[in-house]
Amino acid sequence: MQNISNNQKASLYFDDIRETKVKREQGFTLQQFHYECARKRNDRGMPYGPTQTTILQLQIKSLPDGYLKEIYKRLDEHTESCFSIVFNATFRTDEGENTLSDYDSGLIVTGYVISVDEVFGASHPETSPFFSEEEEENANLMMTGIRLLTKSITYIGSDSYQKKLYINF
What pLDDT, on the 0 to 100 scale, is given for residue 133? Predict the structure, then answer.
């Protein structure tokens, strides 16, 4: 957790940004995400069959003050949820509220929350007990890891381009 960026390049929203007007305050700074989509291939390398089960792993930067209640609610309910990952978002002021107006590209992920892990502070027990200046600034920072059993991923690009990938689970 020592490479924490203060420039917000990617944001995570707990809604489908195509259907809901989202505010800047509703987003979380996405530190990293990872998933692998694979299909079976024949002897010539051509894919066939459904996309195999995929786990999407997200890590967000958040503060420990109750903003993550929604993710725990989704974990407890065991229902399908929608999440949006937006890259290089811009916001406009509408009646005093900063709402999402544009972005470079994004992902709309539908799936089930299967785990939530939290790490408080910038240091780990394995590291030195002495804090650097950067670690002291981030001492009250909380990183949250979220794992989703993914049902579908919709890629959103420029000029309203959309491509949906259904995943077998």
Answer: 52
pLDDT value, residue 124: 44
Q: Are 167 and 115 in contact (CB under 8 A)?
A: no
1, 138 Cβ separation under 8 angstroms: yes
pLDDT at site 138: 52
What is the rounded CA–CA span in Å between residue 143 and residue 87?
19
Mean pLDDT, the chain, whole residue set? 81
User: d(Cα 90, Cα 65) in Å, to the nearest integer?
Assistant: 25
- Ranges assigned E (strand) in the chain: 10-13, 28-34, 40-41, 47-48, 54-62, 81-87, 90-94, 97-102, 105-120, 142-156, 162-166
Asked whether the predicted pLDDT for residue 149 surpasses 90, the reply is yes
The residue count for the chain: 169
Tell me the three state secondary structure of residue 103. Answer: coil
